[in-house]
Amino acid sequence: PPKKNAPVVALQETGMGLRGPKPTPTAMLKARNSRWPDRNRRNEPKPELGRPRCANWINKDAKRAYKMLARDLDRMGVLALIDGRALTRYCQLWSRWRAAETFLQTHNTWYNVKKDDKIVRVAAWPQVREAHMLADALLKLEREFGLTPSARVRLNAIPMPEADELETFLKIGG
Fold first, then answer.
1. Which of 18, 58, 100, 163 could disulfide-link to 167, CB 3.0 to 4.6 Å?
2. Number of C-beta neighbours around residue 54 at 10 A
3. Rounded distance between C-alpha atoms, residue 124 and residue 154, angstroms
4. CB of 69 closer than 8 Å to CB of 40
């Protein structure tokens, strides 16, 4: 049995769930213009922002998704270097989901099970279940990265100032 005065951190270490919603990161609270962005956040880690490198072992579709998504999340200012593994996992799952959906577009959802050249029953392709499971996993990660409309609705995006033509010319050199 746990001790009466055991620290709350012990609950996390033992694998027991914590009550209530997950805490919102301070960066998100500030982006939302919350009244209490720094409330009880003294020990919150502050990872270095930036675009993590794409893993070289993921497939081509996942790499394309990684590059586009990393660019967009970096522009939003919500991507940290430590997010590389989660982003890699998301892109791999997305690639598998895309493959399952592509299969279903060409083969439909159902197929006929035949015995002695007679249709015995109709069954769903295994890709149907796989696509549903992958879609659920993708949605969870999309919420973490702020990739759904409901996850973004609370953010207060500040537009980036446009560079003047001379500055752009000097940077590009054209």
1. 163
2. 18
3. 39
4. no
Instruction: Kindly report, residue by residue over 29-57, the tens digit of the pLDDT.
Output: 777 777 666 666 667 777 888 999 999 99
> Does an H or E element contain 90, and which?
helix 84-107
Rounded Cα distance, 138 and 87, in Å:
11
**CA dist., res. 28 & res. 89, Å (int):** 22
DSSP 6: -
Please choose, from the candidates 73, 20, 24, the residue with its C-alpha nearest in 3D space to the C-alpha of residue 44: 24
- Please write the tens of the pLDDT for every residue from 52-76: 999 999 999 999 999 999 999 898 8
CA distance 16 to 40: 22
Which positions ≥6 away from 29 have C-beta within 8 Å?
A: 36, 37
The dihedral sign for the CA sequence 117, 120, 122, 123: negative
- How far is residue 86 from each of residues 77, 89, 97, 126, 153, measured CA to CA in Å? 16, 5, 16, 26, 22
* Euclidean distance between CA atoms 103 and 117, whole angstroms: 25
* Phi, psi for residue 162 in degrees, rounded to 5: -80, 135
